[in-house]
Design brief:
Two copies of one chain form a homodimer.
Chain A (H helix, E strand, L loop, with lengths): L2 H8 L3 H19 L4 E2 L1 H8 L3 H9 L11 E2 H11 L6 E6 L3 H8 L1 H5 L2 E8 L8 E2 L2 E5 L3 H7 L4 E4 L7 H9 L4 E4 L12 E4 L2 H21 L8
Parallel strand pairs in A: 3-4, 3-7, 4-6, 7-8, 8-9
Antiparallel strand pairs in A: 1-2, 5-6
Chain A binds a DNA duplex through helix 4.
Amino acid sequence: MSIRDKRKLTGIPDGVIGRLPVYYRYLEELDRNDVKRISSAQLGEALEITAAQIRSDFSYFGSFGQQGYGYRVDELKKQIGAILGLSREYRMVLIGAGNIGRALANYQNFARRGFKIVAIFDSNPLLEGNYLAGCVIQPVSKLESYLKENEIDIGIIATPYEYRQELCDFLVDNGVKGIWNFSPIHLNVPEHVVVEHTHLTDNLLQLSFRLNENALISGGFDEDSQKE
Amino acid sequence: MSIRDKRKLTGIPDGVIGRLPVYYRYLEELDRNDVKRISSAQLGEALEITAAQIRSDFSYFGSFGQQGYGYRVDELKKQIGAILGLSREYRMVLIGAGNIGRALANYQNFARRGFKIVAIFDSNPLLEGNYLAGCVIQPVSKLESYLKENEIDIGIIATPYEYRQELCDFLVDNGVKGIWNFSPIHLNVPEHVVVEHTHLTDNLLQLSFRLNENALISGGFDEDSQKE
DNA sequence: TAGATTGTTAATCGATTAACAATC
DNA sequence: TAGATTGTTAATCGATTAACAATC
Protein backbone atom coordinates (compact mmCIF):
# COMPACT_ATOMS: atom_id res chain seq x y z
CA MET A 1 0.00 0.00 0.00
CA SER A 2 1.35 3.41 -0.91
CA ILE A 3 2.02 6.04 1.72
CA ARG A 4 -0.73 8.19 0.30
CA ASP A 5 -3.22 5.33 0.44
CA LYS A 6 -2.32 4.50 4.00
CA ARG A 7 -2.75 8.11 4.98
CA LYS A 8 -6.07 8.50 3.25
CA LEU A 9 -7.53 5.31 4.63
CA THR A 10 -6.48 5.46 8.22
CA GLY A 11 -5.36 9.01 8.89
CA ILE A 12 -2.23 9.74 10.83
CA PRO A 13 -2.37 8.46 14.41
CA ASP A 14 -2.60 11.14 17.08
CA GLY A 15 0.63 9.93 18.64
CA VAL A 16 2.51 10.58 15.43
CA ILE A 17 0.99 14.05 15.07
CA GLY A 18 1.95 14.83 18.62
CA ARG A 19 5.58 13.84 18.04
CA LEU A 20 6.08 15.75 14.79
CA PRO A 21 6.45 19.14 16.51
CA VAL A 22 8.85 17.58 19.01
CA TYR A 23 11.06 16.37 16.17
CA TYR A 24 10.80 19.71 14.44
CA ARG A 25 11.75 21.67 17.52
CA TYR A 26 14.79 19.51 18.16
CA LEU A 27 15.88 19.65 14.52
CA GLU A 28 15.68 23.44 14.68
CA GLU A 29 17.97 23.37 17.65
CA LEU A 30 20.44 21.01 15.97
CA ASP A 31 20.39 23.22 12.89
CA ARG A 32 21.07 26.32 14.98
CA ASN A 33 24.04 24.48 16.48
CA ASP A 34 25.29 23.56 12.99
CA VAL A 35 24.79 19.84 13.41
CA LYS A 36 24.62 18.40 9.90
CA ARG A 37 23.70 14.80 10.42
CA ILE A 38 21.68 12.68 12.85
CA SER A 39 20.53 9.06 13.10
CA SER A 40 17.21 7.83 14.41
CA ALA A 41 19.14 6.31 17.33
CA GLN A 42 20.63 9.68 18.28
CA LEU A 43 17.29 11.44 17.91
CA GLY A 44 15.69 8.80 20.07
CA GLU A 45 18.35 9.15 22.74
CA ALA A 46 17.81 12.89 23.01
CA LEU A 47 14.02 12.80 22.98
CA GLU A 48 13.43 9.57 24.92
CA ILE A 49 11.63 7.95 22.01
CA THR A 50 12.68 4.61 20.47
CA ALA A 51 14.55 4.77 17.19
CA ALA A 52 12.07 2.33 15.65
CA GLN A 53 9.21 4.61 16.49
CA ILE A 54 10.91 7.61 14.98
CA ARG A 55 11.56 5.78 11.71
CA SER A 56 8.03 4.44 11.73
CA ASP A 57 6.64 7.95 12.27
CA PHE A 58 8.63 9.37 9.37
CA SER A 59 7.56 6.54 7.08
CA TYR A 60 3.99 7.79 7.15
CA PHE A 61 5.14 10.66 5.00
CA GLY A 62 8.03 9.36 2.93
CA SER A 63 11.69 8.37 3.04
CA PHE A 64 13.87 11.15 4.29
CA GLY A 65 17.02 9.27 5.30
CA GLN A 66 19.91 7.38 3.80
CA GLN A 67 20.92 3.88 4.79
CA GLY A 68 24.24 3.81 6.55
CA TYR A 69 24.21 7.58 7.02
CA GLY A 70 21.10 8.71 8.82
CA TYR A 71 19.34 12.02 8.15
CA ARG A 72 20.63 15.39 6.99
CA VAL A 73 19.42 17.76 9.68
CA ASP A 74 18.55 20.69 7.43
CA GLU A 75 16.78 18.47 4.93
CA LEU A 76 14.76 16.60 7.54
CA LYS A 77 13.79 19.82 9.26
CA LYS A 78 12.57 21.23 5.96
CA GLN A 79 10.54 18.11 5.22
CA ILE A 80 8.88 17.95 8.61
CA GLY A 81 8.23 21.67 8.46
CA ALA A 82 6.41 21.15 5.16
CA ILE A 83 4.41 18.27 6.63
CA LEU A 84 3.38 20.49 9.53
CA GLY A 85 2.15 23.08 7.06
CA LEU A 86 4.84 25.68 7.76
CA SER A 87 5.28 26.59 4.12
CA ARG A 88 2.47 29.10 4.24
CA GLU A 89 1.17 31.83 6.49
CA TYR A 90 -1.80 31.62 8.83
CA ARG A 91 -3.95 34.54 9.89
CA MET A 92 -5.27 34.32 13.42
CA VAL A 93 -7.72 36.34 15.48
CA LEU A 94 -7.36 36.44 19.23
CA ILE A 95 -10.49 36.67 21.36
CA GLY A 96 -9.65 37.67 24.89
CA ALA A 97 -6.89 40.06 25.94
CA GLY A 98 -6.54 38.78 29.49
CA ASN A 99 -3.49 37.12 31.01
CA ILE A 100 -3.16 34.34 28.50
CA GLY A 101 -4.27 36.40 25.53
CA ARG A 102 -1.62 39.03 26.24
CA ALA A 103 1.09 36.40 26.62
CA LEU A 104 0.14 34.83 23.31
CA ALA A 105 -0.03 38.17 21.51
CA ASN A 106 3.40 39.17 22.76
CA TYR A 107 5.02 35.84 22.05
CA GLN A 108 7.25 36.34 19.02
CA ASN A 109 7.74 32.73 18.00
CA PHE A 110 4.32 32.24 16.47
CA ALA A 111 4.74 35.09 14.01
CA ARG A 112 8.26 33.91 13.24
CA ARG A 113 6.84 30.60 12.05
CA GLY A 114 4.14 32.22 9.97
CA PHE A 115 1.26 32.40 12.45
CA LYS A 116 0.21 36.05 12.60
CA ILE A 117 -2.32 37.52 14.99
CA VAL A 118 -4.07 40.05 12.77
CA ALA A 119 -6.84 41.21 15.09
CA ILE A 120 -7.65 41.16 18.79
CA PHE A 121 -11.09 41.35 20.40
CA ASP A 122 -12.18 41.63 24.01
CA SER A 123 -15.55 42.08 25.66
CA ASN A 124 -14.17 44.40 28.33
CA PRO A 125 -14.98 47.98 27.25
CA LEU A 126 -12.10 49.31 29.37
CA LEU A 127 -9.61 47.58 27.06
CA GLU A 128 -11.21 48.86 23.87
CA GLY A 129 -8.83 50.97 21.83
CA ASN A 130 -5.74 49.89 23.76
CA TYR A 131 -2.85 48.54 21.76
CA LEU A 132 -1.53 45.04 22.29
CA ALA A 133 1.40 43.74 20.26
CA GLY A 134 0.66 46.26 17.54
CA CYS A 135 -3.07 45.53 17.31
CA VAL A 136 -5.96 47.69 18.53
CA ILE A 137 -8.21 45.81 20.91
CA GLN A 138 -11.70 45.83 19.38
CA PRO A 139 -15.06 45.13 20.99
CA VAL A 140 -16.47 41.68 20.29
CA SER A 141 -19.42 43.33 18.55
CA LYS A 142 -17.07 44.07 15.65
CA LEU A 143 -15.98 40.46 15.27
CA GLU A 144 -18.69 39.51 12.81
CA SER A 145 -18.02 42.27 10.33
CA TYR A 146 -14.29 41.66 10.67
CA LEU A 147 -14.66 37.98 9.82
CA LYS A 148 -16.88 38.76 6.86
CA GLU A 149 -14.27 41.12 5.43
CA ASN A 150 -11.14 39.12 6.24
CA GLU A 151 -10.18 35.51 5.62
CA ILE A 152 -9.10 34.04 8.94
CA ASP A 153 -7.55 30.61 9.41
CA ILE A 154 -7.41 30.24 13.16
CA GLY A 155 -9.42 31.67 16.03
CA ILE A 156 -7.78 31.71 19.44
CA ILE A 157 -10.30 31.52 22.27
CA ALA A 158 -8.74 32.94 25.39
CA THR A 159 -11.86 34.16 27.14
CA PRO A 160 -12.20 32.52 30.52
CA TYR A 161 -15.94 32.30 31.11
CA GLU A 162 -18.42 34.05 28.82
CA TYR A 163 -19.11 32.97 25.27
CA ARG A 164 -17.04 29.78 24.74
CA GLN A 165 -19.20 27.29 22.81
CA GLU A 166 -21.29 30.08 21.33
CA LEU A 167 -18.19 32.02 20.38
CA CYS A 168 -16.71 28.90 18.85
CA ASP A 169 -19.88 28.29 16.81
CA PHE A 170 -19.81 31.90 15.72
CA LEU A 171 -16.21 31.66 14.50
CA VAL A 172 -16.96 28.43 12.65
CA ASP A 173 -20.10 29.88 11.06
CA ASN A 174 -17.99 32.73 9.79
CA GLY A 175 -15.44 30.57 8.04
CA VAL A 176 -12.73 29.95 10.64
CA LYS A 177 -11.29 26.46 10.07
CA GLY A 178 -9.18 26.04 13.18
CA ILE A 179 -9.86 26.82 16.82
CA TRP A 180 -7.17 27.08 19.46
CA ASN A 181 -9.04 26.81 22.72
CA PHE A 182 -7.57 28.01 26.02
CA SER A 183 -10.89 28.22 27.83
CA PRO A 184 -11.52 25.45 30.34
CA ILE A 185 -14.35 23.85 28.43
CA HIS A 186 -14.67 21.10 25.85
CA LEU A 187 -15.75 22.57 22.51
CA ASN A 188 -17.76 20.63 19.96
CA VAL A 189 -17.18 21.53 16.33
CA PRO A 190 -18.28 20.14 12.97
CA GLU A 191 -16.11 17.53 11.28
CA HIS A 192 -14.38 19.92 8.87
CA VAL A 193 -13.12 22.15 11.69
CA VAL A 194 -10.08 21.43 13.83
CA VAL A 195 -9.88 22.22 17.54
CA GLU A 196 -6.71 22.22 19.56
CA HIS A 197 -7.26 22.34 23.31
CA THR A 198 -4.62 23.88 25.52
CA HIS A 199 -5.90 23.57 29.05
CA LEU A 200 -3.16 24.74 31.38
CA THR A 201 -5.05 23.57 34.43
CA ASP A 202 -5.27 20.06 32.98
CA ASN A 203 -1.51 19.98 32.58
CA LEU A 204 -1.04 21.07 36.16
CA LEU A 205 -3.51 18.46 37.43
CA GLN A 206 -1.69 15.74 35.50
CA LEU A 207 1.55 16.84 37.12
CA SER A 208 -0.19 16.75 40.48
CA PHE A 209 -1.47 13.22 39.86
CA ARG A 210 1.96 11.96 38.88
CA LEU A 211 3.59 13.60 41.90
CA ASN A 212 1.28 11.64 44.14
CA GLU A 213 1.53 8.47 42.09
CA ASN A 214 5.32 8.54 42.43
CA ALA A 215 5.11 9.21 46.15
CA LEU A 216 2.62 6.38 46.53
CA ILE A 217 4.72 3.86 44.65
CA SER A 218 8.06 4.69 46.25
CA GLY A 219 6.29 4.62 49.61
CA GLY A 220 5.04 1.09 49.06
CA PHE A 221 7.79 -0.33 46.91
CA ASP A 222 11.28 0.49 48.12
CA GLU A 223 13.02 -1.39 45.34
CA ASP A 224 11.46 0.96 42.81
CA SER A 225 12.95 4.07 44.33
CA GLN A 226 16.40 2.63 43.59
CA LYS A 227 15.90 2.60 39.84
CA GLU A 228 17.68 5.32 37.88
CA MET B 1 -6.43 -8.80 40.97
CA SER B 2 -7.22 -5.91 43.29
CA ILE B 3 -7.30 -2.33 42.05
CA ARG B 4 -4.27 -1.52 44.11
CA ASP B 5 -2.32 -4.46 42.64
CA LYS B 6 -3.25 -3.49 39.11
CA ARG B 7 -2.12 0.04 39.74
CA LYS B 8 1.16 -0.97 41.28
CA LEU B 9 2.06 -3.47 38.62
CA THR B 10 1.19 -1.60 35.50
CA GLY B 11 0.80 2.01 36.48
CA ILE B 12 -2.05 4.08 35.17
CA PRO B 13 -2.01 4.50 31.39
CA ASP B 14 -1.19 7.99 30.15
CA GLY B 15 -4.50 8.19 28.37
CA VAL B 16 -6.36 7.70 31.62
CA ILE B 17 -4.26 10.32 33.40
CA GLY B 18 -4.89 12.74 30.58
CA ARG B 19 -8.66 12.28 30.83
CA LEU B 20 -8.95 12.64 34.60
CA PRO B 21 -8.60 16.45 34.55
CA VAL B 22 -11.15 16.60 31.73
CA TYR B 23 -13.65 14.70 33.85
CA TYR B 24 -12.85 16.85 36.84
CA ARG B 25 -13.31 20.10 34.97
CA TYR B 26 -16.66 19.03 33.60
CA LEU B 27 -17.85 17.77 36.98
CA GLU B 28 -16.94 21.14 38.49
CA GLU B 29 -19.09 22.80 35.87
CA LEU B 30 -22.01 20.44 36.47
CA ASP B 31 -21.69 21.02 40.20
CA ARG B 32 -21.69 24.79 39.70
CA ASN B 33 -24.88 24.38 37.70
CA ASP B 34 -26.43 22.28 40.47
CA VAL B 35 -26.60 19.09 38.45
CA LYS B 36 -26.86 16.26 40.97
CA ARG B 37 -26.60 13.13 38.88
CA ILE B 38 -24.92 11.97 35.70
CA SER B 39 -24.45 8.69 33.84
CA SER B 40 -21.36 7.57 31.97
CA ALA B 41 -23.42 7.86 28.77
CA GLN B 42 -24.21 11.50 29.45
CA LEU B 43 -20.64 12.26 30.41
CA GLY B 44 -19.45 10.59 27.25
CA GLU B 45 -21.89 12.55 25.12
CA ALA B 46 -20.66 15.87 26.48
CA LEU B 47 -16.95 15.06 26.31
CA GLU B 48 -16.88 12.98 23.11
CA ILE B 49 -15.56 9.93 24.97
CA THR B 50 -17.25 6.53 24.93
CA ALA B 51 -19.21 5.58 28.02
CA ALA B 52 -17.28 2.31 28.24
CA GLN B 53 -13.99 4.15 28.36
CA ILE B 54 -15.19 6.44 31.10
CA ARG B 55 -16.30 3.53 33.25
CA SER B 56 -13.08 1.70 32.50
CA ASP B 57 -11.05 4.77 33.49
CA PHE B 58 -12.86 5.12 36.79
CA SER B 59 -12.44 1.44 37.58
CA TYR B 60 -8.67 1.91 37.90
CA PHE B 61 -9.39 3.72 41.14
CA GLY B 62 -12.52 2.20 42.56
CA SER B 63 -16.29 2.05 42.17
CA PHE B 64 -17.90 5.44 42.37
CA GLY B 65 -21.29 4.81 40.78
CA GLN B 66 -24.51 3.00 41.42
CA GLN B 67 -26.14 0.54 39.06
CA GLY B 68 -29.32 1.88 37.57
CA TYR B 69 -28.58 5.37 38.81
CA GLY B 70 -25.24 6.61 37.55
CA TYR B 71 -22.93 8.90 39.53
CA ARG B 72 -23.63 11.59 42.08
CA VAL B 73 -21.88 14.63 40.65
CA ASP B 74 -20.57 16.07 43.91
CA GLU B 75 -19.35 12.70 45.12
CA LEU B 76 -17.60 11.82 41.87
CA LYS B 77 -15.98 15.24 41.70
CA LYS B 78 -14.68 14.80 45.22
CA GLN B 79 -13.28 11.35 44.44
CA ILE B 80 -11.53 12.39 41.23
CA GLY B 81 -10.21 15.48 42.97
CA ALA B 82 -8.67 13.25 45.63
CA ILE B 83 -7.17 10.97 42.97
CA LEU B 84 -5.62 14.01 41.28
CA GLY B 85 -4.05 15.00 44.59
CA LEU B 86 -6.18 18.08 45.20
CA SER B 87 -6.61 17.38 48.88
CA ARG B 88 -3.39 19.14 49.76
CA GLU B 89 -1.51 22.30 48.87
CA TYR B 90 1.46 22.59 46.55
CA ARG B 91 4.15 25.23 46.76
CA MET B 92 5.57 26.33 43.44
CA VAL B 93 8.42 28.56 42.36
CA LEU B 94 8.24 30.35 39.04
CA ILE B 95 11.43 30.89 37.09
CA GLY B 96 10.95 33.48 34.38
CA ALA B 97 8.73 36.55 34.58
CA GLY B 98 8.31 37.03 30.84
CA ASN B 99 5.07 36.77 28.89
CA ILE B 100 4.13 33.29 29.95
CA GLY B 101 5.49 33.63 33.47
CA ARG B 102 3.39 36.72 34.08
CA ALA B 103 0.26 35.07 32.72
CA LEU B 104 0.77 32.07 34.99
CA ALA B 105 1.47 34.20 38.04
CA ASN B 106 -1.67 36.26 37.50
CA TYR B 107 -3.90 33.29 36.76
CA GLN B 108 -6.11 32.84 39.81
CA ASN B 109 -7.32 29.31 39.18
CA PHE B 110 -4.11 27.57 40.20
CA ALA B 111 -4.11 29.08 43.68
CA ARG B 112 -7.82 28.38 44.01
CA ARG B 113 -7.08 24.67 43.56
CA GLY B 114 -4.21 24.68 46.03
CA PHE B 115 -1.25 25.41 43.76
CA LYS B 116 0.47 28.49 45.16
CA ILE B 117 3.32 30.37 43.54
CA VAL B 118 5.40 31.32 46.56
CA ALA B 119 8.45 32.85 44.85
CA ILE B 120 9.39 34.25 41.46
CA PHE B 121 12.86 34.49 39.94
CA ASP B 122 14.13 36.11 36.77
CA SER B 123 17.60 36.61 35.34
CA ASN B 124 16.77 40.07 34.00
CA PRO B 125 18.19 42.61 36.50
CA LEU B 126 15.69 45.22 35.29
CA LEU B 127 12.84 43.16 36.71
CA GLU B 128 14.51 42.60 40.08
CA GLY B 129 12.47 44.03 42.92
CA ASN B 130 9.31 44.49 40.85
CA TYR B 131 6.16 42.94 42.19
CA LEU B 132 4.24 40.32 40.26
CA ALA B 133 1.02 38.84 41.65
CA GLY B 134 2.13 39.76 45.16
CA CYS B 135 5.64 38.31 44.90
CA VAL B 136 8.91 40.21 44.61
CA ILE B 137 10.88 39.18 41.55
CA GLN B 138 14.23 37.89 42.77
CA PRO B 139 17.48 37.34 40.89
CA VAL B 140 18.21 33.73 39.96
CA SER B 141 21.32 33.89 42.13
CA LYS B 142 19.02 33.73 45.15
CA LEU B 143 17.28 30.58 43.97
CA GLU B 144 19.67 28.15 45.66
CA SER B 145 19.40 29.65 49.12
CA TYR B 146 15.65 29.95 48.71
CA LEU B 147 15.29 26.27 47.85
CA LYS B 148 17.48 25.25 50.77
CA GLU B 149 15.31 27.20 53.18
CA ASN B 150 11.89 26.36 51.71
CA GLU B 151 10.27 23.11 50.76
CA ILE B 152 9.08 23.44 47.18
CA ASP B 153 6.96 20.89 45.33
CA ILE B 154 6.90 22.23 41.81
CA GLY B 155 9.25 24.37 39.75
CA ILE B 156 7.79 26.18 36.77
CA ILE B 157 10.35 26.79 34.04
CA ALA B 158 9.20 29.69 31.90
CA THR B 159 12.58 30.96 30.72
CA PRO B 160 12.74 30.90 26.94
CA TYR B 161 16.39 30.28 26.18
CA GLU B 162 19.06 30.38 28.88
CA TYR B 163 19.38 27.74 31.59
CA ARG B 164 16.77 25.10 30.77
CA GLN B 165 18.34 21.65 31.33
CA GLU B 166 20.86 23.08 33.79
CA LEU B 167 18.13 24.96 35.61
CA CYS B 168 16.03 21.81 35.69
CA ASP B 169 18.94 19.79 37.14
CA PHE B 170 19.48 22.51 39.69
CA LEU B 171 15.86 22.44 40.83
CA VAL B 172 15.93 18.66 41.06
CA ASP B 173 19.20 18.66 43.00
CA ASN B 174 17.60 21.02 45.46
CA GLY B 175 14.63 18.82 46.19
CA VAL B 176 11.97 19.90 43.70
CA LYS B 177 9.89 16.84 42.78
CA GLY B 178 7.87 18.21 39.89
CA ILE B 179 8.84 20.37 36.93
CA TRP B 180 6.34 22.21 34.78
CA ASN B 181 8.25 23.07 31.65
CA PHE B 182 7.17 25.81 29.26
CA SER B 183 10.56 26.18 27.56
CA PRO B 184 10.77 24.70 24.08
CA ILE B 185 13.18 21.94 24.98
CA HIS B 186 12.87 18.35 26.09
CA LEU B 187 14.06 18.00 29.69
CA ASN B 188 15.59 14.82 31.07
CA VAL B 189 15.01 14.13 34.74
CA PRO B 190 15.70 11.25 37.12
CA GLU B 191 13.02 8.62 37.59
CA HIS B 192 11.68 9.97 40.86
CA VAL B 193 10.96 13.40 39.36
CA VAL B 194 7.94 14.25 37.25
CA VAL B 195 8.03 16.61 34.27
CA GLU B 196 5.03 18.07 32.59
CA HIS B 197 5.74 19.70 29.26
CA THR B 198 3.51 22.50 28.04
CA HIS B 199 4.86 23.54 24.68
CA LEU B 200 2.48 26.08 23.22
CA THR B 201 4.25 26.03 19.88
CA ASP B 202 3.77 22.26 19.63
CA ASN B 203 0.05 22.71 20.13
CA LEU B 204 -0.07 25.31 17.40
CA LEU B 205 1.92 23.12 15.01
CA GLN B 206 -0.43 20.22 15.63
CA LEU B 207 -3.34 22.48 14.80
CA SER B 208 -1.51 23.54 11.68
CA PHE B 209 -0.92 19.93 10.65
CA ARG B 210 -4.56 19.03 11.11
CA LEU B 211 -5.73 22.07 9.19
CA ASN B 212 -3.71 20.92 6.21
CA GLU B 213 -4.64 17.27 6.67
CA ASN B 214 -8.32 18.18 6.53
CA ALA B 215 -7.82 20.36 3.48
CA LEU B 216 -5.86 17.59 1.79
CA ILE B 217 -8.45 14.91 2.44
CA SER B 218 -11.48 16.97 1.44
CA GLY B 219 -9.55 18.12 -1.62
CA GLY B 220 -8.88 14.57 -2.78
CA PHE B 221 -11.97 12.82 -1.49
CA ASP B 222 -15.16 14.69 -2.17
CA GLU B 223 -17.33 12.08 -0.48
CA ASP B 224 -15.49 12.73 2.77
CA SER B 225 -16.34 16.39 2.85
CA GLN B 226 -20.01 15.41 2.97
CA LYS B 227 -19.69 13.72 6.33
CA GLU B 228 -21.10 15.61 9.31
C1' DT C 1 -40.91 -5.19 40.28
C1' DA C 2 -39.12 -3.34 35.87
C1' DG C 3 -35.83 -0.31 34.04
C1' DA C 4 -31.51 1.56 34.03
C1' DT C 5 -26.79 1.68 34.45
C1' DT C 6 -22.70 0.17 36.61
C1' DG C 7 -18.21 -2.54 36.80
C1' DT C 8 -15.77 -5.97 34.48
C1' DT C 9 -14.54 -9.45 31.15
C1' DA C 10 -13.45 -10.87 26.57
C1' DA C 11 -12.87 -9.35 21.88
C1' DT C 12 -11.19 -6.02 18.96
C1' DC C 13 -8.52 -2.65 17.44
C1' DG C 14 -4.42 0.10 16.98
C1' DA C 15 0.15 1.48 18.25
C1' DT C 16 4.82 0.24 19.46
C1' DT C 17 8.78 -2.54 19.04
C1' DA C 18 12.10 -5.88 17.35
C1' DA C 19 14.25 -7.69 13.62
C1' DC C 20 16.29 -7.66 9.21
C1' DA C 21 16.76 -7.23 4.20
C1' DA C 22 18.04 -3.44 1.44
C1' DT C 23 21.44 -0.30 0.44
C1' DC C 24 24.11 3.95 0.98
C1' DT D 1 34.46 -3.26 0.54
C1' DA D 2 32.82 -3.31 5.37
C1' DG D 3 30.07 -0.85 8.48
C1' DA D 4 26.16 1.58 9.53
C1' DT D 5 21.57 2.74 9.39
C1' DT D 6 17.38 3.12 6.97
C1' DG D 7 12.47 1.66 5.79
C1' DT D 8 9.34 -1.91 6.46
C1' DT D 9 7.33 -6.21 7.98
C1' DA D 10 5.79 -9.26 11.49
C1' DA D 11 5.31 -9.88 16.41
C1' DT D 12 4.13 -7.90 20.56
C1' DC D 13 2.07 -5.12 23.51
C1' DG D 14 -1.45 -2.13 25.30
C1' DA D 15 -5.62 0.49 25.00
C1' DT D 16 -10.41 0.80 23.55
C1' DT D 17 -14.82 -1.12 22.89
C1' DA D 18 -18.75 -4.15 23.09
C1' DA D 19 -21.35 -6.99 25.74
C1' DC D 20 -23.53 -8.52 29.80
C1' DA D 21 -24.13 -10.26 34.50
C1' DA D 22 -24.78 -7.91 38.70
C1' DT D 23 -27.61 -4.98 41.15
C1' DC D 24 -29.45 -0.50 42.63
